[in-house]
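cron nightly-structures :: item 1 of 1
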Amino acid sequence: QVQLVESGGGLVQPGGSLRLSCVVSGLTLNDHAIGWFRRPPGLEREGVSCIHSDGGPYYVNFVKGRFTISKDNTKSTVYLEMNNLKPEDTAVYYCAAETGVSRCEGLRSMNHWGKGTQVTVSS
């Protein structure tokens, strides 16, 4: 059974930092891309970042230079380091994977999702 479990969210002031973790079981990170998504309050879910199975990163424009994605295959964990956080980064953050997909551009119909972790950026 595949499970993805996010953690690390919380309340942080603008300009602050958080590190999110996504622990994956039932899938090997060596063979799978993992994506980070978020759903801001009242808005649609959007992609944030992704890491290919080979470790190569992908970022959407609005997080480039502020967020860093990485992974530790031995711990089966993907991290999202978020710096210089802004109020508009407030959202529930999710990690997701699709069985058999190793490249981020191949993620079309993610069939594995975590339950999410809340990130709130506010003074």
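cron nightly-structures :: done
The CA atoms of residues 44 and 103 lie 23 Å apart.
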